[in-house]
Amino acid sequence: MNALIASLQFISAIPLGRPRPFDPRGIIVSFPLAGLVIGVVLAICDWIFTALWTPAVAGVLDTVLLAAITGALHLDGLADMADGLYGRREREKALAIMKDSRVGAMGLVAVVCVLLTKSTALGHVDHARFLALVLIPAYARSAMIFGIRFLPYARGKEGTGSPFFETPLASRDFLFVAVPVLLSLFLGWRGLLLNLVFALGTAGLIILYQRKLGGITGDLLGAMTEVLEAVLFLAVCVGATP
After folding, report:
1. What CA–CA distance (Å, rounded) separates 198 from 192?
2. Could you tell me the pTM of the whole model?
3. Which one, of 33, 32, 37, lies nearest residue 14 by Cα?
4. In Å, what is the CA distance from 38 to each residue of 82, 85, 154, 184, 232?
5. Rounded distance, CA 82 to CA 74, Å?
């Protein structure tokens, strides 16, 4: 429980009392479970939203809630990624841009596009909506484990995220990723589609980061979460009634 609470304190703004001991490995391993907790909060609130408003309005409110739950931490990473990786910049220049607290035009466009995609897709999820909203935040945060496992930390020992890369992850550290995968079976063919999109999306972003920077940063991990969340919400509403 300490690891799960520490993970939630690290990637969300949910008030959970006193800070838990900093355990990088425990925090990483618990990302899928932390995503499930975020998903449960989202699904419960969505149940209230859809009881009071149309699905379209509920989708917008769900998107706002997700941003609030995470303190817009991942959205900030998405903006930094878009500003840094857009175009043919050299590695050091891209890293310097991502470290800059200011948001450029590409960062703003990326954030707006992702938020619009999420809110629109959330307004059209009509099959096992509660379960889908629980699972997708878990999938999106599970992707960060793969990013940490298969890419080196781009900023080296000087970066604030270096403690998370000091000890290589083992196969057993992916155990909790199986939780959303198994629960997705209750979604039928949409669950299979979610797993396929999750695998392809995660692999694609890892390849992009490898080619652009030869590694990954905290900003890129946050961007990975936001992009996959948007794409997975799109996937789960395939075939939805207009």
Report:
1. 10
2. 0.94
3. 37
4. 25, 29, 28, 16, 15
5. 12
